Amino acid sequence: MDSITTGRRKMPEYSLVIPAYNEEKSLPLFYEKVTPLMETLGEDFEMIFVNDGSRDSTKEILKALAEKDKRVKVCNFSRNFGQQAALLCGLTESKGRAVIAMDADLQDPPEVAMEMIAKWKEGFDVVHGKRRKRKGETVFKKATASLFYRFMRKITSLDMPVDVGDFKLYDRKVVDAILSMGEHDRLLRAQTTWVGFRQTIVEFDRPERVAGETHYTLKKMVKLAESGVFPNSSYPLTLPIKLGGALCGLSLLTYIVFIVLACCKVAFGGLTAWLFPSLGLAAGLILCCHGLSNVYLSMVYSEVQNRPKYIVADKINL
């Protein structure tokens, strides 16, 4: 396939979108491995690095790479906005007919990206990278990740592939569809499923990071889960009704037991022995339901504020 020329700028066939946060050790290795591999395709490509407010020398390394190779393009955020914002920025800046999102730490193997391109040429619009094995991750991380995907499939209408992350290939029309969605709190892997089109998977064994440490703390994982569940499911809003109904049924059953025991003259500790646990359970359920409602209100508040999803301090080669 030939690259498209629009105006003065030649549109590349492929765009690589790479979020980077404190990846000073990984970036040179990534560039050295990915560049020759992409060149074997014999088609134009661009690498869009999004520096997500790194505190190490990531910015300086990316600047040096961009000065050496004009195919390297850089967006520097004004602060850390998170991986989803960095991916969104990269998709927005991309010009390729096929866009591949991948990590800078080489846990998303470039060789698998070649398999994704082959699937795209077969006619697929989205190609997900599905992890068979996850090396270098704790048992807790593996367990919570597995639980998250299955939970998402259970309570949303989305048929999200299990054990996939943000490593995937998008056709240009899919990118345009995702960018047309205006939500502030995004989980791109959920939106990718929602937009539809022809999708498939490529399985791979995820290796350990080539350098550095993971930046996904438990707090970030919880925030990511919130961005996936609440904007894509009304189930938490209906949960209070179900819990309330269950509590009413439990209370009714309890009173029936009281009446039967009283009629049989069986000592059961008196009403007080049952009253306080019941009140505690009811209060706990009320607080949980109130908390769920507050999460939705918080997200509505974020949408109403209409703040930018990220702020770009400067760009290179864009």
Characterise this structure.
It is elongated, with a radius of gyration of 25 Å. It is of the alpha/beta class. It is built from ten helices and ten strands. 49% of the residues lie in helices and 19% in strands. It has helices spanning 27-39, 58-68, 83-93, 110-121, 139-155, 172-179, 188-195, 218-229, 235-263, 270-305; strands at residues 4-6, 9-11, 14-20, 45-51, 72-77, 98-101, 126-134, 164-171, 199-206, 312-316. The model is unreliable at 1-8 (pLDDT under 50). Strands 9-7-8-6-3-4-5-10 form an eight-stranded mixed β-sheet, sandwiched between helices. It folds into two domains: 4-232 and 309-316, Spore Coat Polysaccharide Biosynthesis Protein SpsA, Chain A (Alpha-Beta Complex); 235-305. The chain crosses the membrane at residues 243-268, 274-297. It comes from Candidatus Scatosoma pullistercoris.
Q: What is the residue-mean pLDDT, rounded to a whole number?
A: 79
- Give the number of helices: 10
Q: In sequence order, what are the helices and strands, one letter per element?
A: EEEHEHEHEHEHEHHEHHHE
**Low-confidence spans: pLDDT under 50, at least 5 residues?**
1-8
Q: Remind me, CATH topology of the largest domain? A: Spore Coat Polysaccharide Biosynthesis Protein SpsA, Chain A
CATH architecture of the largest domain: Alpha-Beta Complex
Oligomer: single chain
So what's the overall shape?
Answer: elongated
